[in-house]
Amino acid sequence: MAKSRRTSHRPTRPAASKPNPVTATASAPVAVASKPTAARDTQEPAARPAAKPASKPPSKPAGPRQVTPTIVVGAGLSALWLLLGVTGVLSTFGLALFLIALSWAAVALFIAGQALWDPTDALRSARRITALVVVVALPVTFDPGTAERFGVAKLTLLMIGALVLAALWAVDALTNAKIPDLRTGLHWPILAMVVVGLLATIFSVSPRLSFLGDYQSYDGFLALLAFAVLTLSAAESWRPTDLRTILTTFLLAGGGPVVLYGLIQTADVELGTSWDWIGFINPGASFGPTSTVWSTLGNPNHLAGFVACLLPIGLIVVISDRSVLTRVLSAAVLGGALLCLVETSSLGGLGAAVGALILTGLLLIPELRQHKRMAAWLGAGVAVAAVVCVVIVAAQGTLGDKLEAATDWSSGTSTAAQRVEYWKSATDMASDRPLLGWGPDTFGYLSPTYQTQKFVDAFGPDQTINGAHNTFLQTLATKGVLGLGALLFFFVWLALRAWVAWRHVRARERLVGEWRDQRLLLTATVGAATAVLLQSSFNVELLGINVVLWAMAAVVSVIALGAGVTAGLSPRAILHVDEPDRAVTLEPPRRPHRRPARRASIAVPAIVAGVAVVALAWFASTWWRAERSFQAAIEGTNVLLQSTQTEAPDQADSAEQAEVLRSTLASFRDASSQNTIEVLYPLSEAQFEVAVLDAANAVTTENAAGLQPIRDLLQNAVDRAPRDPVPLSTYGFLLAQVRELAPALGDADLEAELFGRASRANPFNAIYVRGEVAALRAAEDLDAAREVVEAGLERFPVDPVLLTEAVAIAAAQGDVAAKAQFQERLDEVSEG
C-alpha cells in the first residue's frame, strides 16, 4: 500500500519536464529529519518550512530543448570525423571512431556541467565541475607524442586540475565570509597519508625520484598531493543530488572512450583490422599490437582493472536510471567492458571484477527482494554475459594457457610465482628501512638489489620489477610502517563511513522510499572502490585507476555527510545511528534567498590566482614537454638508423642526415634540461652519440679525447640515479673503452669504482664483477682485484671469465698454489 505524503507545508511545484537523457535521475533524493546529530551540514541551505509562495513562480527545470544546440554540435563533429575517416584524411578509421567518442564525451561533460552549475555560488560550482572533469578525463588522457605515451600526460592533467581546485578554494576562502569547509570525514586519514608521504620523500634514498615518481608510473609525492586536493575538493563541493549525474557521466564520458579504444584494439587482434593508429610497443613488456589490448592505460592488467571498476557503476545505472537512452548507452559500455576484460586475459582484473560484482550483488539484495522482475532480468543478463564470455574464451583458446601460465609453479615463471617473489623483495626492502621505507615509488629503482635468486634464475639478472604488485606491500617497502598505517587508516575509515552511511540511508529509506537512489549510488561506489582495492592487491598502481578510488572516496563522504554521519574522529559518534522520527522531503538544491556574504571583491584574488595557476601549470607541464622532446629524439634516431642502411648516400642525403643529427641532439638536450630527474634522458643521449661515432668509425685512438662530452653525459646520469646499475655500468664500459684506446686518458680507479657500485646495486650480475676486476688489474691493485674476484666466485662459482681473471691475478702475485687451484676449477668448467 502506498505511503501517504504530507504536501500542505510547501507550495505546489510545476510539473517537471521530460528528464534529460544524460543527467536524468532515478528519483529526487530526500533527507529525513532525525534527532540531533554531530554531523555538520555541508549541503545547500534548507528550505524554510513556512515560506510563502513566491510572487514569481519558479522556472521549469532545463529540458532537452536547452541542450539541443549541444547535441547538434556533437552530431556535427561526429559526421566530420566519420567523413575524415572514410576519406582517409585521418590515419585510420579507428581514430575517427575514437574522436567521435571523445566528441560525445565532451558533450556529456557539458550537459553535466549545466546540471551541476549553481549561479548563486559560482566558485563552489566551478570546483564541482573541475573535479568532475579531472575524474572523467584522467583515465582517457594519453599522448602519442610522448615516448612513454600514458603516464606523464595523466600526471600533467592531474596536477593542473589540482592547481585549479586549490586556486578556486583559495579565492573562495579569501572573499567568502565563511571559509569553505574541508572536513569531509576522510580529511584526517588523507592528511596522515600526505604527511607521511612528505616525510618519506624527504628521507628517501632518492628524494627527487620520490617527488616525481618513477618513469611511467609517476606515483610519487606530487601525485599523492594532487589526489588529496582532488578528493577533498570533490567531497566539499559535490552534493547528494549531484551524484547520479557524476557517476553516470564518469561511466559514459570516462569509461566509454576507454572501452571503445579497447574494442578497436580487439578488432585488430581478433579480426585482423588495422584501426589502431598508434601501434604502441613496450620493449620491456610481454605484449604487443598483435597479442592483447591495453587501450588508454598502457597495460592489459591496468585496462582489466579499470573496466572492473566500471561494472558496478554501469550495473546500477542500467537498472535504475530513468532515461532509456542513458540505460542503453550504459549497457553498451558494460558489454564492451566485458569484451575488453575477456580479451586482456588478466586474472587480476577478472578477480577484481568478480569480487566487486559479488559485493554489489549482496548490497542489491534489498532491491532484488522488492523487484522480482528486476532480479529475473538481472539474473538472465548475468547468465547471458557469462555464456558469451565462455564462448569468446573458447574460441580464442587462451584461457587454458593463461591459467597454466598463472599456476605453473614448477617453472618459476608463472604470474603467481612472480608475485610471490615480488612480495619477498618488498618485505626484504621493508626490513632494512622499516619506519619510513626507501621513499615513494622507489621500488623499481631498488629492485635489482632486492630481487630474489629464484626470480633471477627464471628471468635473468637484468629484469626490472616496476612494483610490488600489492599496494600494501608496496607502501610498506617505500613508506614504511608509518605509511602502511596511514594507508590502513584511510581504508578502514572509508569502509567504516560507507557502512554507517548505508545504515543511515536504510533507516531513512524505510520512511521515505525515495532514499533508494542514495542507497543504489552508495552500492555502485562501494563496488567500484572494491574493484580498485582488489586490482591493486595483485598489480601495480596506476594514476588512471587510482583516480577511481579517490573519486569513490569523495562520493562516500558526500553520501555519509548527507545522511547524517558525523565528520569527526570519534568511532562512537560515527557508529551511532539516530532513528528518524519523521520524513521531510529534501528538495533539489534551490537558489538561496541571498548570495553568500563576501568580505571583498572576487576580481583581484581571482586575477592573482589565475596568474599563479598559469605559471604553476607551465611548471607542472615541464615533464610532459620533456617527454615530447625525448620522443622527437627517438624519432630522429630511427631516421638516422634507416639512413645508415643506404649504401651510398648522395650529397643531399648527407645534408639531410646532418640536419636530423643536429635536431636529434637538440631534442635530447631539451629533454634533459626540462626534466632534471629522469636518468633515461642523458643515458640515451650518451648511447646515441656513441652509436653515431661507431657508425662513422670515429671511435679511434686519435679521437679518444673527443669522448669527453659523452663522459659528462654519463656522469650526469650517474648523479641522477647513483644506485642504478645501468648508468653506472655504461659509464664503466665507456671508461674501459677509452683505456684501451688511449691508456693515458683512462681512469682505471673511477672505472673500478663504477663497476663496484653497479655490482653492489645488482649483486646478481657477474658482468659487473668482471668489469671491476679488470679495472683493478689495470690500476695494478692486485690485492683488491684478488679480493673482489674471490668474493665474486662465491656468488658465481662457475663463471669462466672470473676464473680466468683469478688465474691471471694469482700468477701475477706469484701464488702458485692458488693459480693451480683456480686453473683446475677453470678446466672443470671448460670440460663440463
Describe this structure in words.
- The protein is built from 32 helices and no strands.
- The longest helix has 39 residues, at 471-509.
- The protein has 832 residues and is mostly helical.
SSE class: mainly alpha
Terminus-to-terminus distance: 89 Å
The level of helicity is 55-70%
The coarse silhouette is globular
Biggest β-sheet: count, sense, barrel? Answer: none
Find the count of extended strands (DSSP E, 2+ residues).
Answer: 0
What count of helical segments does DSSP give? Answer: 32
Radius of gyration using CA atoms only: 31 Å
What is the typical, i.e. mean, pLDDT?
84
Percent of sequence in beta strands: under 5%
Unreliably modeled segments: 1-65, 584-594
Task: Give the helices and strands, then pairings.
Blueprint lengths: L63 H23 L6 H24 L5 H19 L10 H25 L11 H16 L4 H6 L8 H17 L5 H29 L28 H21 L3 H21 L2 H17 L1 H6 L1 H25 L2 H9 L7 H18 L10 H8 L2 H7 L11 H39 L6 H21 L6 H21 L7 H5 L27 H18 L1 H22 L7 H24 L5 H16 L12 H13 L4 H17 L6 H14 L4 H13 L3 H14 L4 H14 L2 H16 L1
Q: Quick gist of this model?
A:
The chain is mainly α.
Q: Top keywords for this entry?
A:
about 0% strand, about 65% helix, mainly alpha, about 850 residues
